[in-house]
Amino acid sequence: MTKLTGKIFAWDFHGTLEQGTEVGFAQILRNIARKINYKRRISLEEVRKYFGISVLDYLKQFFPTLSNEEVYQLREYVKDIQNQKHIQKYIKPAPYAHEVLAKIKTAGHKNIIISTSSYAHINRFLEVIGVIGYFDEIFGIDRHVLEGDFDIAREKTQAIEGFAQKHKIKSKNIVVIGDRSDDINAGINIGAKTYQYITPDFPHIATNADFKIYDLREILREL
């Protein structure tokens, strides 16, 4: 086994390396409301408030009187409509994402993605915004098809730990970047350095991150 040198930069995707997913998803929810003639105002602010929950939970939140069967059918509709064309229309890379990822890779370090979307789904997003080539490993933990409790921090911890152990990288050489508490807690669980990326569009989320940043270029201090 080849031993990696340098650091691991473990990235969340939605809300961290991209922007616009919630805008497109708000439009999907509005389309659903029109499709089924459901009288419900769907604001972008409310969609952002719940950002990070599963598609199933989103549907239950915005269409609470529907039966389970109807909600499951709508989940399949969401999968169909959130296609390549939709992603291209609404999603773009976060400011400086390309620059930061490229500099990390050029410096000899490793970028990995740990997402709670499926592997196929997250790959489509990465391809559309043109960053897939910067990553050494992509972990897709599909939260959106599961029901019941799902410990995001635990799942992300296991993914990062597995990659680090496989390549003999110590926790002091791991940097975890995300926008939500589960991302940060995953990094804390393994003793990594943690960065919370904050954007003004979303409600403030309190975390115990080592650093709270508004510009992804601040990650480059770790090179």
UniProtKB/TrEMBL annotation:
<dbReference type="InterPro" id="IPR050155">
    <property type="entry name" value="HAD-like_hydrolase_sf"/>
</dbReference>
<dbReference type="InterPro" id="IPR036412">
    <property type="entry name" value="HAD-like_sf"/>
</dbReference>
<dbReference type="InterPro" id="IPR023214">
    <property type="entry name" value="HAD_sf"/>
</dbReference>
<dbReference type="GO" id="GO:0008967">
    <property type="term" value="F:phosphoglycolate phosphatase activity"/>
</dbReference>
<dbReference type="Pfam" id="PF13419">
    <property type="entry name" value="HAD_2"/>
</dbReference>
<dbReference type="InterPro" id="IPR041492">
    <property type="entry name" value="HAD_2"/>
</dbReference>
<dbReference type="InterPro" id="IPR023198">
    <property type="entry name" value="PGP-like_dom2"/>
</dbReference>
<dbReference type="GO" id="GO:0005829">
    <property type="term" value="C:cytosol"/>
</dbReference>
<dbReference type="GO" id="GO:0006281">
    <property type="term" value="P:DNA repair"/>
</dbReference>
<protein>
    <submittedName>
        <fullName>Uncharacterized protein</fullName>
    </submittedName>
</protein>
